[in-house]
Structure formats: structure tokens, C-alpha cells
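Reviewers of the previous submission asked for a worked example of the structure-prediction workflow described in the proposal, so we include one complete record here. The input consisted solely of the amino acid sequence. No template or homolog information was supplied to the procedure at any stage.
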Amino acid sequence: MRDDAGFLVHQGRADELVKVAGQWVQPGELEETAALEAAVAEAACVPVVDADGLERLALFVTARGDAAEAVRAAAAACERALPRHKRPKWVRSVPELPRTATGKVQRYKLRELLERELAGRE
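From that input alone, the workflow returned the following C-alpha cells.
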């Protein structure tokens, strides 16, 4: 897309878009918002189907220090900066983001982690 000054701005890959509440969401927006918080080292967002069969967003963060503080900071940042449909339904802390040998985040592993957690509550 072009910004007001006429410069091209990369918005991310089209195949990473997720439709939430009828609107397209770029998971990278949530990741960037959370990563701006001092308590958050890294963030990754994945779509997860909830109990109602709807695709929702889950945000996983790694902490700089206290994990609970990182979760609170990431959730608060999303609440402040993002419209309601872009906010994550779940925010979880993980010791580290699972990665491939080349360093790419294995998002499917994060999705599976939350799905197992949610299945245990039923």
C-alpha cells in the first residue's frame, strides 16, 4: 500500500490474513503491538477455532522476566491499541517460541498447544 507521502509500505503476506468477525486481520499487527511492551521479548499470533466453531486469535508471548506480567502487558497493549475484532481471545506465555531449524516460528505447534489446553477443560 502507499502511505500519505507516496512511499510503499509492506503490509505482510496475503496468506497470513485471518477473517475474524467478518473482517480481515493481519496477525502481525498483534505481534507488533505486544512486542512493543517492555515485559514482552517476542510474540506470535495464530488463529484457533473456539468451542463455537469460530476462528479466534491466540497470542503467545515470551517474557523478559515475569511471565504473568508479560501476559498482562500484552493483553493491555492490545486492548489499548487495537479495535475489538483484532484483539486476541487468548494470551498465553511460553518459555520460547517453537522454531524450525531456519528460525521460522512453528505456528501450528502453538495452535496445538492451545487446542490441547482447551480440550482439557471440556
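The radius of gyration is 15 Å. We consider this example representative of the routine output the project will generate in years two and three.
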